[in-house]
Structure formats: C-alpha cells, structure tokens
Amino acid sequence: xxxxxxxxxxxxxxxxxxxxxxxxxxxxxxxxxxxxPNAVExxxxxxxxxxxxxxxxxxMPKINGLELLESLNPAPLVVFTTAYxxxxxxxxxxxxxDYLLKPISLGRFMKxxxxxxxxxxxxxxxxxxxxxxxxKDNTSNPKTEPELLYIKSQRKTVKLDLSEILYLExxxxxxxxxxxxxxxxxTQRIGFLExxxxxxxxxRIHRSFIVSLEKVTAFNTIMTExxxxxxxxxxxxxxxxxxxxxxxxx
Length: 250
Hints:
The chain contains seven helices and 15 strands. By secondary structure, the protein is an alpha/beta fold. It has two domains: 5-123, Rossmann fold (3-Layer(aba) Sandwich), CATH 3.40.50.2300; 148-247, CATH 2.40.50.1020.
C-alpha cells in the first residue's frame, strides 16, 4: 500500500479548489492538510515542514505560484494546476513533477498521483521539507565504466552503445533514450537506468532528464543544450550539475 501523502491545495478560484479536493478525497493515500486561496497563506503551512505535495495554481494575486516555489528551498513535490500552457517550461525548470491544464479530469489527476507514488517509492524519499531529493555524487566512487547499456524494450533486450546516447527523457511512465540513430523507449525507471550509466559520462540534471556529458554543447544555470535541444536543469540538481559541467572538458 502506498504511504500517506500530505498535500495542500493552493488556488484563488473556489471552483478549482473544490474540484481538486473532490479528486483528492477519492485517492486512498492523499491527505489534504490545507486548502489555501493564496500563496501567502500557503507559505505559512509550508514553513512547518510537514507537507509532501503541493497542488499549485500559477496566476494568483500578489504572489504567483512560480514565485512561491522559487521562494522555497528546499521544496516539497509540486504539481502545477493552471489554465495557461505558456508556463510549462519554467515550471519544469523549477523541478515540478507535473503540470496539469485546467479543466483537469479525474483520469489525468489519477495519472499524476501514480507518478508521485512511483517517484516517492522509487527514490525512497523522506516526507519532510528537511530531506529534499539529492542528486547523485558524480565525483566520488566512480563505477567501472561499461561501454554498452542493455535495456528492456517491447519484450526485447536492446543493446545500446553509450557513445551513441544523447540524453534520456522520462515522460508518462516511459523513458525515451535519444541516440544519434533514433529513439528507444522502455518502461524501466529513469532512476534504475541512472544507476547503470557511468557517472563520469552521464549527468542527472532533472527528475526527467539525464544527459551525456560528451554531447552537451552549451549550458547555463537553467538548461543544457544537447543536439540542438534545450533541456531544463532542475533546481534540486542545479548546484551539482554546474560543478560537474564546469569541470568537464568540452
């Protein structure tokens, strides 16, 4: 049975709050600790350090959802709930675990909770703001470096040359491995694949992304560029990612 997840709902629209409370009540392991009409009220709950998950609207008066998340360090898991598509990139740069567009269906909400449950169980996270997810240390105890990665894909075992891998992307319970020859999908978790990759050649930059250090052509504090595509660096991974990227020869 999944552990109880303490959450708060932050939205200035009464109807939106009502819908989320209704959906949350149907999830056996969700406990709604508070329902807040604005970010200021939510901030006081978050300072207590016992919240695991926040359903957070973006456009709110005085302090918007993005500003609230930026003010939290460390932060709980955040699911943005909004009617606006244009904030998605910024949301994932801030390490949001999901981005729900209003009107939100129960089915889509359930997929988000499944993702949250898998993330918490797969990473063995503590449910406290004092214990945020930490990136893997790429500088100590390097493992023996394989030249190949074996993954399960469509009932087959696929052999991939590490030198051909550009980056890994986790989305909707699948991981897509982008290579110079195309894409390969697997249902194996990105955390599991991270453990199989040599940490001197690959870097976790986000909950959803691992990049090949050799394939990074540019970077700054919020993104890396691989094969012409900009990939976000999550806030919880940022300091470690910067240290590794700056030390790695390009």
